[in-house]
Amino acid sequence: MAVRTILDKRAGIAAPTLRRDAWWLPPLITVVVLLSFVAYGTWVAFSNSHYFSDPYVSPFYSPCIAANCEHTTFRLIGTWWGFSPALLILPFVLGFRVTCYYYRKAYYRSFWLSPPACAYREPHKRYTGETRFPLILENLHRVFLYAASLQLVFVWWDVVAAFHFPTGWGVHVGTIVLLLNATMLSLYTISCHSARHIVGGHVDEFSKAPARYRVWRVITRLNERHMLLAWISLFVVAFADLYIRLLAMGHIHDFKII
């Protein structure tokens, strides 16, 4: 029965799918949201302005390591860099998201229709997997994971700085925004499939590595919510930048909580 199922031809159905529900809605929403984020992120990266409002720095520009930064975290790049400081950071963090296993599924289905939904006929005649350019770059996911993890250190550094105002220590709305952003980015990164494998994916006997097993179980539970964390962190990081941008432009006021 199994051999016959594999070798027999597909059913002669001319229609790409017989589904009657709104199967096209999820991929359409994915296209709209991801394109909107890419457009906003590109504009932010090249605008090179309004990304710092003391003591807050936009996560799109963190860490700000160029000499032309409004607020320099660590001056590693000299005055020869005449472009936006965000262009030194975003390629690595965006590379992590682009090569993320969940986001691959999301944009493969929505942008390349490969396939767009379950029970929908594959529209492409050939399938080469991730063996050719540009998809072969997906194999750099773990490298981007290391870079994104390093960026998290500076994101949390910004959270600590967000408690220290010119008038002293305190908690403002912006402090909470950056704290929420750092938390969601951390959960999204930790719940990554590659992070789960690094911790325990290659351990043959968990009984001989109880500590790693406990960490692996925690990450596994987070990994079950990886899709949700991916979307929430995407919206939160954009909101954090927008909040700081509006503060820097003088359009809103940063209310003090404590």
Report on this structure:
This protein is mostly helical and 258 residues long. It has one domain (22-249). It is built from nine helices and four strands; from the N terminus they run H-H-E-E-H-H-H-E-E-H-H-H-H. The strands form two sheets. A two-stranded antiparallel sheet has the order 1-2. Strands 3-4 form a two-stranded antiparallel ribbon. Strand 3 (164-165) and strand 4 form a beta hairpin. The N and C termini lie far apart (70 Å). The model has no long low-confidence stretch (mean pLDDT 90).
Instruction: For the record, give the distance between the C-alpha atoms at the N and C termini, rounded to a whole number.
Output: 70 Å
Give the total of domains.
1
Assembly level? single chain
Strand order of the largest sheet: 1-2
**Strand coverage percent:** under 5%
Mean pLDDT: 90
From the alpha carbons, calculate the radius of gyration and give it in angstroms. 22 Å
Main sheet summary: 2 strands, antiparallel
Structural class: mainly alpha
Overall form: globular
SSE succession: HHEEHHHEEHHHH
Number of strands: 4
Unreliable spans: none
Could you outline the blueprint of secondary structure elements for this entry?
Blueprint: H1 2-7, H2 25-47, E1 52-53, E2 56-57, H3 90-98, H4 101-110, H5 141-161, E3 164-165, E4 168-169, H6 173-190, H7 193-201, H8 210-223, H9 226-249
Helix pairs in contact: 2-4, 3-5, 5-6, 6-9, 7-8
Quick structural overview:
With 258 residues, the chain is mainly α.
Structural descriptors:
single chain, 258 residues, two-stranded antiparallel sheet, 4 strands, 3% strand, globular
